[in-house]
Design brief:
Keywords: DNA-binding, Phosphoprotein. By secondary structure, the protein is α/β, with parallel strands linked by helices. It is built from eight helices and eleven strands. The chain is elongated, with a radius of gyration of 18 Å.
């Protein structure tokens, strides 16, 4: 999944980026509301972790702007404010959940997983597609109970495929979920990563749709 982290405190931002990346996601980061607003308008994210107390443009204004533009990605707001009316204001502005500072990183990751599950047909952290299983909590996968030894890129690709089984994903979509916004995106490398992932999955699991992209077969072909 592709996550935007908006936090102006450098240490906390670094901790959030590290934890969410370790959980198997691609992470973008912004340090002020102006940058966050722009990223949310021009880039596609699966979820956002948004601090309310931001410089230049505050978090609530950023959130309202996204919602007014039709941006529907789930947003988890972070706030140091403990009063109930601040939480209500955030939810009314379009937030999907909130977490008051200080917080435990495991709780944030759990809340983020819950938000991301709303985007998928999966109701738990354990996803299944034929013989392929994926655990979003442990960032691990296996085939017929045999663990898969995946690189971080391979895991991210498999997670995206399993999020939308049977749907065609373009090389551009796959590239955007693998690389941060400021990285060079080479669609040719996607072919390499897909080829490597294919070798680790049952034959027929990932189908090539000529001229369009790739899709995960909902029932992989038998070997």
């Amino acid at each position: 999944m592709r996550i935007l982290v908006v936090e102006d405190e450098p240490t906390l931002q670094a901790q959030l980026v590290a934890a969410i990346t370790t959980a198997g996601h691609t992470v973008e980061a912004a340090s002020d509301g102006q940058e966050a607003a722009w990223l949310g308008e021009v880039e596609a994210f699966d979820a956002v972790v948004l601090d309310l107390g931001l410089p230049i443009i505050d978090g609530l204004t950023v959130l309202r702007r996204w919602r007014s533009l039709g941006r529907t990605m789930p947003v988890l707001i972070l706030t140091a404010r403990s009063s109930w009316h601040e939480k209500v204001t955030g939810m009314d502005a379009g937030a999907d959940d909130y977490l008051a500072k200080p917080f435990h990183m495991e709780e944030l990751l759990a809340r983020l997983r819950a938000l991301l599950r709303r985007l998928t047909p999966h109701s738990s952290a354990l996803w299944q597609c034929g013989p392929i299983s994926l655990d979003t909590r442990q960032a691990s996968a296996w085939v017929d109970q045999a663990p898969l030894n995946l690189t971080s890129h391979e895991f991210k690709l498999l997670q995206l495929f399993m999020q939308q089984p049977g749907q065609v994903l373009t090389r551009t979509q796959l590239s955007e979920h693998l690389y941060p916004q400021d990285s060079e995106r080479d669609s040719n490398t996607i072919e390499v990563f897909v080829a490597r992932l294919r070798k680790k999955l049952p034959p027929g699991s990932i189908e090539t749709v000529r001229g369009m992209g790739y899709r995960l077969a909902e029932t992989p072909a038998a070997a």
